[in-house]
Specification:
single chain, about 375 residues, alpha/beta, six-stranded mixed β-sheet, 14 helices, globular
Length: about 375
């Protein structure tokens, strides 16, 4: 005689199994962030994953372990390779550029040699300027045996504004870096208080992060076939306006003589400590300089002259005092190579930047 199937019993059993699986997931804490089809089934990506949620070619992933597992730097280092890692913001990542137009790929196509080794450049820039964000990426970068780190900074890099999703996603690494190097980050308390709950560690609680991780893996087919990691950027070649507003404020601040006290120079020192014996080349990244109305007030829409001048003077003095390798390229690229933003170069502008940095790179690498 057949046993009658009870829909209610099936639902209860399914719910119990679901709860058990979620509890086991928390207790076992499987290393899912290190699992990747890139560099095995698919070629590694040349940029860290970043993009709008509506972009069919991209996804937003904040966990550095997931990001690096998808990146070509995770491939074993060749004995004939001189490995250079680029750190910085969206200007290094290559906003409004294809992956092949970005700084690292143009550099690699120039096939720079250092003795019997080939200089191979890796793009580890990630949008939004933040020295704390850069430290987290640097802390992960040293696991991949770079020979040199080139760190692009600007004024906004040294004055972080908010607790970003990136810092929250890498909470434990961020807290460790901040505490180890005594960096006075005003949002650290929020990081400490933001410890994930038991529910947030379950499959259900992590469903959004897991969904984006899965999407990143599925995008490997598109990357392998097209080498596209974002929708086609705008083809506009019009440069931004040379006129700026008659506004002396920087982030709401009126001119002040002590802006340096807000700059996290000890975070730059921490980066050198993290790198250890790996040399760092610190670069003040080039920017658009307005020549039209109110250009005596502001260099561009982002920076009034008083703030940026204090920044340049302070960075130069700090680099000299600490004996850092430092290159100030703020005014070396002509304005026409900034089509969309004061800090974002065109593809041709990136080529010019490679030419600006290459001599110093080779001096450090081939000494």
């Amino acid at each position: 005689m057949k046993t009658e199937i009870s829909p209610l019993r099936i639902v209860v059993k399914a719910l119990c199994l679901f709860v058990i699986v979620n509890i086991l997931y928390v207790l076992l804490d499987p290393p899912v962030t290190g699992i990747s089809a890139y560099n095995t089934i698919f070629p590694g990506r040349v940029r860290l994953p970043f993009g709008d949620r509506d972009d069919p070619y991209a996804t937003m992933v904040d966990d550095v372990n997931v990001m690096f597992a998808s990146h070509v730097i995770a491939m074993p280092k060749s004995p004939k390779e001189y490995r250079v890692a680029l750190l910085g913001d969206s200007s290094v990542w290559g906003e409004n550029l294809t992956a092949q137009e970005s700084l690292s790929e143009q550099w690699n196509r120039s096939d720079v040699q250092c003795g019997d080794r080939t200089i191979k450049v890796y793009n580890l820039g990630y949008p939004h300027p933040s020295v704390i964000k850069d430290l987290i990426i640097l802390d992960k970068t040293v696991e991949y045996d770079p020979d040199l780190i080139i760190w692009f900074v600007t004024l906004n890099t040294l004055i972080p504004r908010r607790l970003s999703p990136f810092l929250a996603a890498n909470r434990e690494r961020a807290i460790r870096v901040l505490d180890t190097h005594n960096i006075p980050f005003r949002h650290e308390e929020a990081l400490l208080e933001n410890e994930p709950t038991f529910y947030q560690k379950t499959l259900l609680g992590e469903k959004s992060d897991l969904a984006r991780m899965i999407k990143l893996q599925t995008l490997g087919t598109i990357w392998a076939a097209t080498q596209a990691d974002m929708s086609a950027p705008s083809g506009s070649t019009n440069t931004i306006s040379s006129d700026v507003e008659d506004d002396v404020r920087y982030r709401g601040m009126e001119p002040r003589p002590d802006l340096k006290i807000k700059m996290l120079f000890n975070a730059l020192a921490a980066g050198h400590d993290i790198a250890g014996s790996i040399p760092i080349l610190l670069i003040n990244e080039p920017m658009f300089i307005a020549s039209g109305a109110n250009n005596t007030v502001r260099y561009n829409d982002g920076y009034p002259r008083w703030a940026y001048d204090q920044y340049r003077e302070a960075v130069a003095a700090e680099a000299q005092s600490a004996q850092w390798n430092y290159l100030d390229l703020w005014d070396t690229i002509p304005p026409q190579y900034f089509p969309h933003s004061p800090l974002h170069l065109s593809a041709e502008g990136e080529r010019l930047l490679v030419e600006q940095v290459n001599p110093t790179l080779q001096t450090i690498a081939c000494h």
